[in-house]
Every structure is written in structure tokens, then in C-alpha cells.
């Protein structure tokens, strides 16, 4: 068994950014997931391995690892179903991907990063209306967290969500609104 920390995973991904060898990183992470004990969850390592396969352009292998992360049920960042939906869209399996997006919506996630991930996936697929809805809902989650007095890392998601929403709003030809004012305020600070 291998003890793996977040720093270990970050170092591996940093090296991969430097070398561009996403295939080797994906293989290494997938192997590591089989022996990980303590530090980070197996599901988190599987999710990162899937991301590396996606960066390498092998969406089928990514989908397998995302499914394994979901089945594992361990702690992850975001929602592995959002990443799986991305891989399925890339594989042309739109109905399956959309079904996962609807599952996530029905669960009403409390993590704004889930909304950001889904909004980004939908934007990449040309679903501007879906992007707009998910980015708005995610911004609302951050604002609700803020209203409760919690200035947590959720605040970090707000700018990204508002930027996505802005792009989608412009693409949809909708007028400026309070969310745009909020984005302007964030960018000034």
C-alpha cells in the first residue's frame, strides 16, 4: 500500500504540465489508485487519472476511471459525474451525458465548483442556455453561502461562475443585470 498526499498528486500534475505527457501521468495515477492507502482517497486518484486521460485525448479511458471513482464512493473534489458527462459528450454519447447532468441537477449540489464544472462542460458543447442556467445557479449557491456569513473557498468559484454566465448571457443576447454588476465589482477589487 502507498501513502499519497495532495502534495504528491499536485507534484505529479505539475510535472505533467511541464512535460505534456498526460498519458504517462494517467497510467501512473491509475496504477497508484490500486495501491493508495491513507492521505487521499482512491476515488480522488481515479478522478485525477481520468482527467489526465482526457487531457491526452482518450475519453473512453477517462470515462472508465470516472465510473470507477463514482463506484468507489470515496471523497473527491466536485462531482465525478460531471467529469464523466464531459467524457461521454466527447465520445458522442450525448443522451447519457445529459442524463448525468440531470441527475446532478436533481441532487441540488451545495458545492459551487460542481456548477462551474457542469457550466464549462455545457459551454464546450455549445449549450449556451444550459451554461447560463448552471452558472447562475452556482453563483446563487455562492451568494447564499456568503449570506450565511461563511467566506469560505466557495467565494473563489464566484468569479469563474460569473465569467461563464457573462459569456453565455452575451451569446444569448440578454441584457446586463445585477450579476454583471457583481462581476464588475469583483474585477475592480
Task: Report a brief summary of the structure.
With 189 residues, the protein is mostly helical. It is 75% helix and 4% strand.
Describe what you observe in this structure.
With 189 residues, the chain is mainly α. The chain is built from ten helices and two strands; from the N terminus they run βααβαααααααα. The protein has helices spanning 6-19, 22-33, 42-56, 59-72, 80-90, 94-106, 112-124, 128-147, 154-172, 178-188, and strands at residues 2-4, 36-39. Strands 1-2 form a two-stranded parallel sheet. Helix 5 packs parallel to helix 7 (112-124). The longest helix has 20 residues, at 128-147. The chain starts with a strand and ends with a helix.
Which features characterize this protein?
189 residues; mainly alpha; two-stranded parallel ribbon; 10 helices; 2 strands; globular
Amino acid at each position: 500500500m502507498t501513502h499519497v498526499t495532495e502534495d504528491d498528486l499536485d507534484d505529479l500534475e505539475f510535472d505533467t504540465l511541464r512535460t505534456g505527457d498526460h498519458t504517462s501521468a494517467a497510467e501512473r495515477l491509475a496504477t497508484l489508485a490500486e495501491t493508495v492507502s491513507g492521505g487521499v482517497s482512491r476515488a480522488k486518484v481515479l478522478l485525477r487519472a481520468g482527467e489526465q486521460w482526457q487531457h491526452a485525448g482518450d475519453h473512453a479511458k477517462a470515462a472508465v476511471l470516472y465510473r470507477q471513482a463514482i463506484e468507489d464512493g470515496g471523497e473527491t473534489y466536485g462531482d465525478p459525474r460531471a467529469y464523466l458527462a464531459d467524457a461521454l459528450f466527447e465520445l458522442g454519447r450525448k443522451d447519457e451525458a445529459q442524463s448525468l447532468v440531470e441527475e446532478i441537477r436533481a441532487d441540488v449540489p451545495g458545492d459551487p465548483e460542481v456548477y462551474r464544472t457542469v457550466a464549462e462542460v455545457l459551454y464546450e458543447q455549445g449549450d449556451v442556455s444550459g451554461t447560463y442556467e448552471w452558472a447562475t445557479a452556482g453563483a446563487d449557491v455562492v451568494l447564499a453561502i456568503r449570506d450565511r456569513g461563511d467566506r469560505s473557498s466557495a467565494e473563489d468559484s464566484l468569479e469563474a461562475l460569473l465569467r461563464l454566465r457573462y459569456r453565455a448571457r452575451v451569446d444569448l443576447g440578454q441584457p446586463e443585470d445585477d450579476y454583471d454588476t457583481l462581476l464588475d465589482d469583483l474585477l475592480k477589487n
